[in-house]
Write a structure and sequence with these properties.
By secondary structure, the chain is an alpha+beta fold. It folds into two domains: 72 residues, no CATH class; 97 residues, no CATH class. It contains seven helices and six strands; from the N terminus they run E-H-H-H-H-E-E-E-E-E-H-H-H. Strands 1, 2, 3, 4, 5 and 6 form a six-stranded antiparallel beta sheet that branches. Helix 2 runs antiparallel to helix 4. The longest helix has 19 residues. It is elongated.
Length: 202
């Protein structure tokens, strides 16, 4: 392990790159660089490379036919399996603010035992586990307080602060004390619900 602080926290995408097998990260980037930005637009997974790192479009490239992302999907599958394995083994820990099925205020740990069932959205720092939805997800090398793990299953330890479910409404006092990143994540979640019709726009 490097000199990084155990308490330091990383967004999902940064943790994936920093704490996964470097060879698997390089494999994903190598495959991504074979495509143009336009061709990557049709890729349904996440991306590690910026547009500037991808292949430059050419006037003859269209002759190659539609892009084949098979090897890229395979590279991503290998990388994510490694990421899940490390999460399961406790090499890092995830936590996030639960927004479904109940809205909470403080981040809750996401147990490593759930890794196989997690759906990761690296661009939005979102993790979904069955009916549970976590936003503003961060990764850390430091293990959370074991008492907090009961929150993930709906058990609130006696005397815990700002951990209780708050239904689907936050009070003004609660909002004032929220981390700015959490506020942004909650607003994005609300906007997505309005867009998909889960919450009436009027």
């Amino acid at each position: 392990m490097s000199t990084e602080s155990l308490a330091s926290k990383l967004p999902l995408a940064e943790a994936l790159v920093a704490w996964s097998d470097p060879a698997l990260v390089d494999a994903v980037r190598t495959h991504e660089r074979q495509f143009t930005p336009y061709e990557m637009a049709g890729f349904l997974g996440a991306r590690l490379c910026a547009d500037a790192e991808l292949t430059t479009p050419s006037s003859t490239r269209w002759k190659m036919g539609p892009p084949d992302h098979t090897l890229l999907y395979a590279a991503w599958d290998a990388l994510e399996r490694d990421f899940r394995r490390r999460m399961t083994q406790g090499e890092f820990y995830l936590s996030g603010v639960q927004t479904e099925p109940e809205l909470t205020v403080a981040p809750r740990p996401i147990p490593g035992a759930w890794a196989a069932d997690c759906r990761f959205n690296y661009e939005k720092d979102v993790v979904e586990v069955h009916s549970l939805h976590f936003c503003a997800v961060q990764a850390s090398r430091q293990s959370p307080d074991p008492a907090l793990y009961s929150l993930a299953t709906g058990e609130v330890p006696t005397g815990s602060c700002n951990a209780q479910p708050v239904g689907h409404r936050l009070t003004a006092d609660q909002v004032v004390h929220l981390d700015p990143d959490v506020v942004v994540a909650l607003l994005e979640q609300h906007a997505e619900h309005v867009r998909t019709g889960l919450i009436p726009s009027g």
